[in-house]
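Minimal example, chain plus zinc ion.
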Amino acid sequence: MTNSLRGFRDILPPDSELFARIEAAARVVFGLYGYQELRIPTLEQKELFVKSTGDTTDIVEKEMYAFTDGGGREVALRPEGTPGVVRAYIQNNLAQTGRNGKYFYLGSMFRAERPQAGRYREFTQIGAEYIGNPAPAADAESISMLVRFLEKAGVAECSVVINSLGCAECRKAYREILLGFLRGKAEKLCEPCRGRIERNPLRALDCKTDGPWLTSEAPKRALCPACETHFSGTQRLLSAAAVAYQVNTSLVRGLDYYTGTVFEVRSGALGSQDAVCGGGRYDDLVKSMGGPAAPAIGWAVGLDRMAMLLKDKPAPDTAPRAFVIAAAKEAGDRAFALLTALRADGISADFSNFELSLKSQMRSAGKSGAAFALLIGEDELKAGTAAVKPMKEGGEQFTVPLAEAPVKIKELLRGI
Ligand SMILES: [Zn+2]
Ligand SMILES: [Zn+2]
């Protein structure tokens, strides 16, 4: 038999139900905030990610699923959603034709890193981007929508950690100060950081090895007055939106395109400092990719990680409400019509194989978790009725005219 590729997995029930529940929560919450769905391709030109995500990021340096296709084109499976959204925004002229610049996406992302526990080469992300609004209210709205979505999906004890990386000007000034400091400490840095400080010194703050000691020793970032005003405005509005947050000036986030506000959401339920998800402002990305000057902010959440957090929560009951059984050879057609009638009335209903024995069909009914079995045998066939058997122990069996079966079942379900 041919197995799935290493690092690629099947999401089976009940996990698939959990994913669907998270996606449903996302759609409800995003709708309240005026976001519309954008469906973007899975495969793009490799160049798109090199130019946007950044060639000094781990994602592009080590983890991108890139290859040359049959036509000799350099392509890559998307490692994240933002570059594709921005490309679509520019290519389709959404600055002119779009409603409000608010988009969300949902789907598979790919990273060719070594598969390990809980990390897959194909994983699902939900992300939201707000393009075209430079005001602190856009930051606060984006972050508070993320928190409301996580809460709606059932992630407990969410807290937000925010920082501002400053504008291009602030960053340039800080970059020089930090670079000077790091050059002097080069022998203390891990190898990847040492190799990259000249190109991207900020990344060292984000490094798992060096981040902790740099947080206390490295010079702190300073913001220009405009960035300071924006950052304090964002904080005021987060408070107004009743979002709990903390400022952490060493929070960097590992993507090259972030400017201004960056943030992470952590969950107390995770029992660690690990972020559930994060995002930030990318005011220069749209323009640098050939689009209009359109400041933007966005974030992405990994569903696999969220699903892990929610695994222990009681799953919604997906068992059918009714299970239809043909208890006589000729009853199959009638039973199938009853099944159809129940579903048409909004009652989830299932069956196994009408040609099998009554005992076998009853066993399947028990396994399905259905609340009621509806049987059509010889007597019922003649009388135009169905026998209703509550699957709970001690339930009394009774007979109901076929046409009234859906109404009766609904009535009984309300009582459960
Ligand atoms: Zn600034
Ligand atoms: Zn390092």
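The longest strand covers residues 122-131. Residues 166-167, 169-170, 223-224, 226-227 surround zinc ion (ligand 1) (CB under 6 Å).
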